[in-house]
Structure formats: structure tokens, C-alpha cells
Write a structure and sequence with these properties.
Blueprint (H helix, E strand, L loop, with lengths): L1 H29 L5 H4 L3 H17 L1
Length: 60
Amino acid sequence: MILHYWIRQSHRWLGILLTLTILANFVSMTFGPAPLAIVYAPLVPLALLVFSGLYMFFQR
């Protein structure tokens, strides 16, 4: 049960992190072409969100 709690908590924090990286992406685009590190930054939390979301989906 404690693993389920930690995965759910990390899923929430990853959602916040994804939102922040997307906002950083849009802000950096207002100043010109964005560096590739900022453009591809949302992919890491997005991939982790997919795996944690699928885990929680199949637990119920």
C-alpha cells in the first residue's frame, strides 16, 4: 500500500513539473528560438506520467 501512495504522490508532482516545463517553454519562445534543452524538457515528466498513470490505471 505504501508503494501505491508514493506512486500517486510522484504522479501529482510530475504533473506540476510538466506544467512548469511547458510554461518555461512558452516563455522562452517569446524571446526567440528556444534552446533544444527547453523544447524537449517536457518529454521526461510526460513519459514518467504515462508510466505512473498506467500503473495506477491497472491497479484498480
